[in-house]
Amino acid sequence: QVQLVESGGGLVQPGGSLRLSCAASGSIFRLNAMGWYHQAPGKQRELVAVITSGGNTNYADSVKGRFTISRDNAENTVYLQMNSLKPEDTAVYYCYADGIQSDRRYYPRLWGQGTQVTVSS
Question: 12, 26, 44, 117: which has the fewest Cβ within 10 Å?
Answer without folding.
Answer: 44
